[in-house]
Every structure is written in C-alpha cells, then in structure tokens.
Amino acid sequence: MNKLKSMSKSWIIILVITLLLTFVQLPYYISSPGMATELAPIVKVEGGSKERGSFSLTTVRIGKANVVQYAWAKVNDYYEIYPEDYIRPDGETEDEYSNRQLHMMENSKEQATVVAYTKAKKDIDIKYNGVFVMSVIPGMPAEKVLKVGDRLFSVDGHVMKSSEEFIKYVSTKNSGDTVKLKLERKGKTMEVKVPLAVFPKEQTGEQKDKVGLGILLVTDRKVEVNPPVTINTEKIGGPSAGLMFSLEIYNQLIDEDLTKGYKIAGTGTISYEGVVGRIGGIHQKIVAADKSNVEIFFAPNEYGKTRIDKNGEKILTNYQEALETAKDIKSDMKIIPVNTFDEAIAYLEKLPPKK
C-alpha cells in the first residue's frame, strides 16, 4: 500500500513538473507536419463547377517552443527546431511576424486569382496603389526612416506600380546614393530621403555585394474579377498555397473537371506570371499529404537547378526533397515536378479519369 502511495506521489510530481515546463518558453520555434485541407469549401467562384475529386493545400504547424515541445521535437522524425532569429528577423515582434505571414497569404491569393482568371480568359481588372513596407532589416539605412506599414508611391519622382519596379530602379544605384521617397503613414503623406547601403551577406545569400534600402516590399493591388471569387483562409498564413489556389480557382472557372476523381495536393508559391516557386518544409508537407491519403502531389521543380549554400553543400530542389521523403515514409503518392502553372494544367489534362 505504501509502495502504491509512493508511486502515485512520484507520478504526481512528474506531472506537475511537466506542466510547469510547458510554461517555460525557449528562443526556438518548432515546425511539424500539418494537414492537407480541401480547397473546395474554402474557394468559392460564383456559379463555379463541381469536382469529383479534390485539390488540397498542405500546411506545416509552427510555433514557439517550450521545454516539453523542444524535447519531443528532438526525438521525432520530421519535426524541425529553428533558432528564433531564423523565423523572425531581429527586432520583429510576434504580432508583426503573424501580420507578415497573413499579408503574404493575401498576396498569394491575389496572384493565384490573376493567374487562374487570365488562363480561363475571364474578366479581370487590376488597379495599383503603391507598395507596402512589410519589414525593415536592422542595421540598414531604412531602419531609421521607414516603418512597417508605410505605403510608398514614388522614388525620385518616379511613380511605382509594383515592388518589382521599385527594386529594379533602386538596383541601378550605388552604395551611398540617396533616394527621395513619397509615402503615406497613418493617413499622412510625406517625403523622406534614404541612403543606400550594401546588404549583409546573410540576408541575401549572394556572394557579390547587393545594394538597397533594407526593406521587404509587397505591391498593393486591387484585383476585380468576374465572376466573383471568395477565398476564406481565416488564420492560415504564408505564400506556399499559391499554386493550389490557382488550380482550384481555374477548375471552378472551366467546364472540365481537372481532378478526374483523384485526391490532389501540392505546394509552391505562384507568381503573377504563373511561375511556381520554392517553399520551406516540403518534407513535412509530404508527410501531411500522405496521412490524408493524397494520391497526386505537385512539388516545385525549380527548373531542376540545385544550389550550393555558403558551406559548399548542395541544396536539393523541392521536388528532389519530396521524392526522398516519399521514399523514406514508403508513400504511394505520385510526386509530380512542376515549374509553372501551365505545366500542372498540362499534366492534369492528360490524366486519365479515375475508375
């Protein structure tokens, strides 16, 4: 009896300690496989076509680590531990990080809409309202002048429609040059001067010097389409569902059902030109898709180009990573490499209907 009481007390002590440790936050983030979420309930094109199968986005769970979560991640496959400054730039708050992720999601939905409606030859109108400052790199000149949320209209008197135009213009300048910006901040219009400097190499990953202001920009576009489309992503953040959004929207716009009865998932950013871009955590997304019995998975191919990191190590493409993971977990999913939206469409058009 005394032995049982002693054991009970030991377990109570262990449980109390474990509970207390969950409140101890560490300077790390943990990412793990999320889920495959069907897009038909999320994406609604007015009068859109129905599907026999499904398109799904795939997610990765990510959050601040406590002691228990850190220990769990250490002993579990496909859990990743990242230093805090790898996920959030120095000086960025948790709220700013969340807002940045949500803003990237909004931008991703907009890009997907433009790609799908353009391909389907449906009505689309785009209005440009300048570019937003999404984040400011500590130690760069812009840190002392610009703030997250500033809307930039022009540089040196040149009106900018997109972040690409802004970056192209600034890239012609040299370190030490100064540019004059017209911007709006909290409803007030002002002009400021900002010098240019060389980016820290760890920010660019490039060997040669890159000059800039030290800001991350996103274009403020207003896209109007007919028929209307709504995409309800609630609190899902990041840009990695772009490809799958574009496929779902396009499938609802056309008469043919491109799912052909299959469960199809994937990942990858999408540009306004329909180029599929690299994303992080693809190995975890393969695990998530496999658990949801996905049959076909689209992975960014990056035109088959492997890169070399600063330590001389080869960086696999998303497609190569996906193949390795699928083999490791013994998945029967077909992993399909795609460089562009059009390549994904071409594959689906040739896909035989599921019996």
TrEMBL record:
Pfam families: Lon_C, PDZ_2. Residues 234-351 form the Lon proteolytic domain. Its EC number is 3.4.21.53. The keyword Ligase does not apply. This is endopeptidase La. Belongs to the peptidase S16 family. Keywords: Hydrolase, Protease, Serine protease.
